[in-house]
């Protein structure tokens, strides 16, 4: 239940600020919202993940008269850096320091706990801001489209990752890890992250920011074998060499690869580009050495296979096996296409995790959306037929690449926004109220935003809890608990 908002919460109070102060945009049930006179140009960004913050960073740096407000539906910022990056990859999360600098910039405000499309419409934002950038990511799952995918024991990688990373929406997942074999469909970096977390020694995870709930579940896990399945062959595998090397070197594990999957690969090495060649050589090395490795847990790629059906237990309620189509390749290289041979195989497993991709969802009926590509149709970040409306990140391109890819994508959108502000393509002659136009709407609807300083209270409490357990942080899993700490 949403906390009640005091009547005076969003009264706009004029206040003086120095360049080092951070009073703009603070929300507090006792003080109300304190704002200084805003810069003339108002831009808002929908989504407080990497795309949102990189876009904000570029716009704030590129124009001295712009105020950027970042709206986020959760009380906590940073999106997939917090909820998607593997807990044993802390170095990837260092980008949070850059996002924090942006959020603390005197012309940037973070407004968490606001769901655009529900608490406030995109059309209302467009009336209040000169430019609106949609950077809300890809929260949906791509369906496998096979019978049995809704059986118990079948999970999306997105939800599984959200579970061990503390995403509030996935806190009730409770995956059943009482089975020997797990099959992961998809061979990208997320698939390897999941495989590594399932098989990693607990001592490797205890000092990360993985949730205690996940750590307890993994302590009792019976999973000893993880198969990572892909439709195409070794020379089309989607993961990067860093993630593969981590699997190869994972303590207590040994590779379980099939020699027949690598037929003709050695001979084709000389034709491969260097990154692909190094990746393929590492797989071949793992294949050659797998008999010499010691470990009670196994992982392995299964190539040229695609899902046909998740087979149920006799009572018909949960997964017992997966039926796979055996494929052959037509063509070669990155463009090779998987074609079913007509042969099938069944792999007994109690856990099936689908890692075939995320997808963006429509945010508001007023915003065009391409359901086939699962993106907002755009030209270089400009939303089709909607002057002043933009997009960045995965909702712009689809869920591809790593954080650096999102950075470049978002900087590109930021440049386009600045170009349109500078050229007059976006009309700046009309004064826009920005947050002062949105705050009364939120107050009327009982919505109390979380400021960045409010988030810092959550951050401090999480770090305090983590320190007591020898971890960087212990994430809060409940939104109401986050709000209680934020407004304490």
Describe the structure.
- It is built from 16 helices and 20 strands.
- With 488 residues, the protein is an alpha/beta fold.
- A 6-stranded parallel beta sheet has the order 8-16-9-10-12-11. Strands 5-4-3-6-20 form a 5-stranded parallel beta sheet, sandwiched between helices.
- β14 and β15 (337-348) form a beta hairpin.
- α1 (50-62) packs parallel to α13 and α5 (157-165) crosses α6 (189-199).
- Mean pLDDT is 91; it is low at 1-36.
What is this structure, in a nutshell?
This protein is α/β, with parallel strands linked by helices and 488 residues long. The protein contains 16 helices and 20 strands. A six-stranded parallel beta sheet has the order 8-16-9-10-12-11. It has a five-stranded parallel beta sheet with strand order 5-4-3-6-20, sandwiched between helices. A three-stranded antiparallel beta sheet has the order 13-14-15, with no helix packed on it.
Task: Describe the secondary-structure layout.
Layout: E1 12-14, E2 33-35, E3 41-46, H1 50-62, E4 66-71, H2 79-83, H3 95-103, E5 108-111, H4 122-128, E6 131-134, E7 140-141, E8 154-156, H5 157-165, E9 181-185, H6 189-199, H7 202-205, H8 212-219, E10 225-229, H9 241-248, E11 253-255, H10 265-268, H11 274-289, E12 297-302, E13 305-312, E14 319-330, E15 337-348, E16 351-354, E17 358-359, E18 378-379, E19 382-383, E20 389-391, H12 394-397, H13 403-423, H14 435-444, H15 452-467, H16 479-486
Parallel strand pairs: 1-2, 3-4, 3-6, 4-5, 6-20, 8-16, 9-10, 9-16, 10-12, 11-12
Antiparallel strand pairs: 7-17, 13-14, 14-15, 18-19
Helix pairs in contact: 1-13, 5-6, 6-9, 9-11, 15-16
